[in-house]
Amino acid sequence: MQSENHPTALEQARCPIDEEPAFWDKWGWLVSGVWIIFLIFPVLDLLLDDYSLSTRIIGLGLVALFAAVYLRAYAQYSRVVGEGGTTEARALIYFGILWAITLAGIPVIGLTAMGVFPFLTSYSAFLLTRRVTIATYAVVTVLCFALPIIFNNFMDLIFLIGLNLVLMVVYAVTVAAITRSSAAEKIRADYLLVAEQERVARDVHDGIGHSLTALNLKAQLALRLMDAGKYDQARGELEQLSDLAVNALDSVRTTVHGLSRQDLGTELSELHKSCEDNHIRFTVIGQVEDIPQAWRSHIAWILREAVTNVLRHAHAGSVVIRLDPHSVSVDDDGDGLQNKASGHGIRGMAERARLFGASATVGASELGGTRVHVAFSTRNEKS
Question: Confidence band (pLDDT; 50, 70, 90) for 333?
Fold first, then answer.
């Protein structure tokens, strides 16, 4: 049984979508920042190999600038990971700067520049569009084979070539997985949003519709009493009408906040009073305790809808409600369905019954009017 403090379906729908961009906006650069540690290889190469001092300084400066631009770009655009990439000019400018640093470093540090290729391919795969990614992959693949041949050092760089190719595949698979997960979350959010809209529509019809019907009936009764000169009785009906209006406002608040819980015992008392006011005999066979606790709120809504339909349309003289552990029924001796098509109220009862694994049917009653029957099994009870 859900508590009244549980989030509504709409709130559940919002959480995954709203929180994910917040994470990427704040911490996305750290995800990329972890890989900056691999720039240690070109740094060590510059420090340990036989380079002139000026070459070391220029090379280390280019590596530092590369790392700064890379982190800055991820900090600004990591929110688009899994969303197909961005085409914003600034993101492309950052990417162009990274390429310029890489190409400028090749004449200075030679094949050591190949150590930054994985950063170029990851940038394009995670932050840019598929078209740019394909072009980047193609260029990097060509350079991975061309540069070792040009520098006549192909065999010593087999591992680095293979690493670049493997990482490109890893990036592509990772992006595909993130994109698929993001799409699944959005589909789930859309489904929960529709479920919340259906809940609001059902609760407006079941709750507020019932309240407005009761208000209308009370107002008509008060007018008839005033026409008959029974002003004291009319005043009493108007006072009850005021109370009903307050209850209707509470029903609106309940619907808005998603706390659509109704006490079955209280509902039966209210229905008894409504029928009594309209000179309809009201009989309950069975006890509220016969209904599983987890389902009483749903049963209360269904009974409200069924009796409201009797008050509106049936011209009945009596209503009989039967409660037992396996079913609930509402019978009246009114006009019956008379081959009328199922309205929103009947469909709403069926939908609400399905919420807890039950079935609701509407047909002819032994009393001569209409019978609403809800059947369920205690095996389906939810705690």
Answer: very high
d(CA 109, CA 115): 11
Closest CA to 275 of 203, 339, 330, 345: 330
Range list of H helices, 204-291: 209-227, 231-256, 264-277
8-state DSSP, 4: T
CA-wise closest residue to 87 among 117, 124, 121: 124
| Whole-angstrom distance, CA of residue 193 vs CA of residue 187 | 10
Distance in angstroms (rounded) separating the CA atoms of residues 160 and 164: 6
Rounded Cα distance between 10 and 15, Å, is 9
Pair of tokens at residue 210: 């019932």
> Could you report the per-residue pLDDT of 125-139, keeping only the tens digit for each?
989 999 999 999 999
* Angle at the Cα of 66 from the Cα atoms of 38 and 116, rounded to 5 degrees: 45
Q: Could you give the residue ranges of the DSSP H alpha helices within 34-115?
A: 40-48, 53-77, 89-109
Residue type, 355: L
Please name the residues in contact with 64: beta carbons below 8 A apart, sequence gap of 6 or more: none
Q: What would the two tokens of residue 323 be?
A: 């409660």
One-letter amino acid for residue 138 of the chain: A
Distance (Å) of CA 234 to CA 29, 54, 238, 241, 296: 72, 102, 6, 10, 35
Question: b vs e for 68-104, b when ≥16 Cβ sit within 10 Å of the residue's Cβ?
Answer: ebbeebbbbbbbbbbeebbeeeebeebbebbeebbee
Tell me the three state secondary structure of residue 299: helix
Q: Can you count the helices (H) and strands (E) in the chain?
A: 12, 5
pTM, two decimals, is: 0.46
